[in-house]
UniProtKB/TrEMBL annotation:
Keywords: Cell cycle, Cell division
Species lineage: Bacteria, Pseudomonadati, Spirochaetota, Spirochaetia, Spirochaetales
Name of the protein this chain belongs to: Cell division protein ZapA
Origin: domain of life: Bacteria
Organism: Teretinema zuelzerae
Protein's UniProt keywords contain Cell cycle: yes
GO biological process entries: cell division
Pfam families assigned: ZapA
Length: 100
């Protein structure tokens, strides 16, 4: 996997990170985070960068949690196909044991 680096300038701080991800992916994550930060700054009276960062973390966690819940309630066709394959394999094994 390629290593990517990202320069972060946000909420009054600046630093650089490196990760085992492509730079395009890191930039997309950063852009999404900045979008959330901007929404919070526009809709909230808080001027505290730490509070803003915490609220952003909670909002992004909420997005992730809702997406996971949606996927668990609506499994993808690939998941269903894999479940069917496993079930058929188990049925075959049971049939073999019963016929022995």
């Amino acid at each position: 996997m390629s290593k990517g680096s990202l320069q972060i300038d946000l909420l009054g701080t600046s630093f650089s990170i490196q990760a085992d991800e492509k730079p395009e992916y890191l930039n997309a994550l950063y852009a999404h985070y900045k979008k959330i930060i901007n929404q919070i700054e526009e809709s909230s009276a808080t001027q505290n960068p730490l509070k803003t960062a915490i609220i952003a973390g909670i909002l992004i966690s909420d997005e992730l949690y809702k997406e996971r819940m949606k996927r668990s309630l609506n499994p993808s066709p690939v998941d269903l196909a894999e479940a069917e394959k496993i079930a058929l394999s188990l049925i075959s094994r049971i049939d073999q044991v019963i016929s022995e």
